[in-house]
Amino acid sequence: MNLDDLPIRDDLKGRKPYGAPQIDVPVRLNTNENPYPPSKALVDDLAEEVRRSAAELNRYPDRDATELRARLADYLGHDLTPDRLWAANGSNEVLQQILQAFGGPGRTAIGFEPSYAMHPMISTGTATEWIGGVREADFSLDPDKAVAAVEEHRPAIVFLTSPNNPTGTALPLETIEAVANATDGMVVVDEAYAEFARTGTPSALTLLPSHPRLIVTRTMSKAFAMAGTRLGYLAAHPAVVEALLLVRLPYHLSTLTQTAALVALRHRRELLGTVDALRQERDATVEWLRGKGLEVADSDANFVLFGRFPDRRAVWEKLLANGVLIREVGPPEWLRVSIGTGEEMAAFRAAMEEVL
Ligand code: PMP
Q1: Most informative mutation of 221, 229, 299, 336 for ligand 1 (most atoms within 8 A of CB)
Q2: Which of 54, 181, 288, 336 is deepest in the core (most CB within 10 A)?
Q3: C-alpha dihedral, 167 to 281 to 315 to 329, nearest 10°
């Protein structure tokens, strides 16, 4: 028997699963992780806390992740309180819960492409119809066109990704406000890469007090260097959090996940201490690629989109043959490289020299 023989939902037929290749090569620059592993001190502290939590694993976790949400509110600042925070297993699960509560059959969600592929996938998974809006040639978002698209389609949910994946493009607050003012649906600003933004790039968190249907999502998978922990979170009006309580599974966030996330927040000075180095490495990578005569999108994230290659598959394969795994994603002739350590980026440049 194969998949087609199963009585699967019609709208899932013929779909492909999310599939960034997980290939074991020396230099992995394909899923926008932070390349720096935790220090021994952090690992020791985490092991000790996990040992403490382990003694209570016969009990369910704190269903509402009370302490974690309080510490996340402290981290974000902006006068946020725990009732305005929510957490789940990666920001992907946060997004799924948002779609479960505000999307669903007969409703639509819109995003402006190229953007994060999981927005349409999670929409489809929750039977929410996806509408692909467009970006300009330089990957920016024209506020007038975005507003027009929202007014035309009247979506239940608008996704705005800032900085955007895979282009690295951050959005001005004016664009977010214009879109928020044009819809009576929910506006999700996916800020998975916010900590990497160039100085002076504002967060949509500043808009929360004036826009009650705005949701800002964040993650510990990127700048926080905790991708393996699976911890994503959001900030929004307390009523939004109440809505998510209706759809979340009870005890979705395991005791061990909550423990690990709390330890990470305690060690945030160390974890976020690599962000400046990664930003510098990113800016240097943009310069280097431009110096090679390539087109490179401005980036406020920990990755760089560059092109154009009429046969990008061949370039991707050649890099892989040189031990460097990047991502074949985005518009047809472009490739995306995540920012690694100085050594990893030197290996990337060396492999690119071979290609060029
Ligand atoms: N949003 C964006 C824009 C992303 O690029 C990613 C990860 N690639 C996520 C959300 C999800 O990350 P996680 O589930 O690890 O928090």
Answers
A1: 221
A2: 336
A3: -20
Compute φ and ψ for 145, nearest 5 degrees.
Answer: -70, -35
Q: In angstroms, what is the span from residue 92 Cα to ligand 1's centroid?
A: 6
The residue whose two tokens read 């995003």 is: 111
In a domain, 58, yes or no: yes
Distance CA 204, CA 186 (A): 14
Longest dimension (CA), the chain: 60
The count of structural domains within the chain is: 2
Whether 251 and 330 share a structural domain: no
Tell me: do 326 and 180 sit in the same domain. no
The Cα 147–Cα 159 span in angstroms is 13
pLDDT digits (tens, 9 = 90+) for 26-42: 999 999 999 999 999 99
Q: pLDDT confidence of 17, banded at 50, 70, 90? A: confident
Same domain for 286 and 138: no
Q: CA-to-CA distance for 70 and 226, rounded, in angstroms?
A: 19
Shared-domain flag, residues 117 and 181: yes
Phi, psi dihedral angles at 234 (to 5 degrees): -140, 160
CA–centroid distance, 192 to ligand 1, in Å, is 6
* Average pLDDT estimate for 146-169: 98
**Of residues 218, 193, 179, the one with CA closest to residue 77:** 218
**Domain range holding 104?**
40-266
Residue reference for tokens 């819960």: 97
